[in-house]
Amino acid sequence: MVDRKEPLPVSRQCALLELPRSTFxxxxxxxxxxxxxxxxxxxxxxxxxxxxxxVHSAPLLTQ
Length: 63
Prior knowledge:
63 residues, mainly alpha, 4 helices, 57% helix, elongated
């Protein structure tokens, strides 16, 4: 894992791990409760109808 406290520069640590530096500096955006609820709904629909493609899934989400 990359550690800023190490004497080896972050750029070198990332290179050794074959990790882009942008990945190290990336701060994920928090997911809202509304988005989590929508993702759960999509998961339930997909588990119930795994053979549906995206085009057929849209009507399921409006029910």
